[in-house]
Design brief:
Blueprint lengths: L1 H9 L2 H14 L8 H26 L3 H26 L7 H12 L3 H13 L12 H22 L9 H10 L1 H20 L4 H25 L10 H23 L4 H12 L6 H9 L5 H34 L1
């Protein structure tokens, strides 16, 4: 089963189109995307992600436990982004603010593919789980992305532009009113208010085109990443160590928080690896491509897709379940 999941996801259209774009760039093909095309795909995908997440939350509904868990998921997303950012900005690794923000956003945000695989794993093992936990996706994902962007922009403006009048208030306003944040939070709010019935006429557009547009977006990301591969030369190998170790740290933090919330082993597993330790390679590239254009996507996406993701689906999901069983007994 695990071998089948590895093959299915590593050889998914998203990963293969990214590799195709990468190969095209390495071979110096004339395959290129107009800037307007990339921006349009990004707007569509951001709106779709936010709207679909809002509809999912509306299906679950709201009560005290769910609201507490949503607040916790938001806090965990923000915390993981901050930990990653300052780790990447440390003297040991020394990434610039744009790349630190981009990588932190990728590693603190949520991978929908890993989330789905976590649920599949639990169902295969006949493990019950709290049904609302997958619906916490947008809370953790959005908080992680917004905090990573804010920290990156604070770093940029306190460095090369130090001494200007660009205050933290200005940075917060810019980050929270940027099109990436507006589309994610706005789409989530609209989806929650309208619900499944209210979005019936528009969801077919987003559902039918989402995966196709995503594959083209990943192709564009591959071309862009391949064109900047030379920037990786001479970069410290410690960043690879970060890509291997950080998801374990995120997973452990998520598992402890979920156990403190009183979730069962299944819910802890989903919170720990389906959400906290999953590492995004779809929503985060879309957001960071727009919000931090100077960041190198070959670094952030490569670490998330080629380093973190394979280990998630082969090792960390069953490990998270064993951790959940231990914490369930402890708490």
């Amino acid at each position: 089963m695990m071998a089948d999941l590895v093959i299915q996801n590593i050889f998914s259209p998203f990963a293969l189109f990214f590799l195709l774009g990468l190969l095209a760039a390495v071979l110096k093909s004339d395959l290129k995307f107009p800037d307007a095309a990339g921006a349009t795909m990004g707007i569509f995908l951001l709106a779709a992600i936010g709207l679909r997440a809002g509809v999912d939350v509306s299906k679950v509904g709201l009560d005290g436990t769910i609201l507490t868990s949503a607040v916790a998921a938001t806090a965990v997303g923000a915390l993981l982004a901050a930990i990653s950012f300052y780790c990447l900005r440390s003297k040991l690794i020394g990434l610039d603010p744009s790349n630190a923000g981009s990588v932190a956003g990728h590693f603190a945000a949520v991978s929908s593919a890993t989330l789905v695989m976590t649920v599949v794993f639990l169902e295969q093992q006949q493990v019950l789980y709290d049904a609302f936990v997958p619906g916490l996706y947008p809370f953790m994902d959005t908080a992680a992305l917004v905090v990573a962007i804010i920290l990156a922009r604070i770093g940029l403006n306190s460095g090369e532009n130090a001494g200007n009048d660009y205050s933290i208030r200005d940075i917060l306003r810019e980050a929270l009113t940027a099109r990436t944040t507006i589309l994610l939070l706005g789409g989530l709010t609209i989806g929650f208010i309208a619900g499944e019935s209210g979005t019936q006429k528009v969801m077919p557009l987003f559902d039918s085109l989402f995966h196709g547009v995503t594959t083209l977006f990943m192709l564009e990301m591959g071309v862009l990443a391949g064109s900047r591969l030379s920037e990786l030369k001479g970069m410290s190998k410690l960043i690879i160590g970060y890509g291997l170790v950080m998801p374990f740290i995120n997973m452990f933090i998520g598992a402890v928080v979920a156990a403190l919330l009183g979730l069962g082993p299944g819910g802890i597993t989903i919170f720990a690896i389906g959400l906290a330790g999953s590492c995004s390679y779809i929503s985060a590239p879309i957001v960071m491509r727009t919000a931090l254009p100077n960041a190198n996507p070959s670094l952030s996406l490569g670490l998330s897709l080629l380093v973190a993701f394979p280990l998630n689906i082969t090792l960390r999901i069953p490990l998270a379940y064993q951790l959940a069983l231990s914490l369930d007994k402890l708490f």
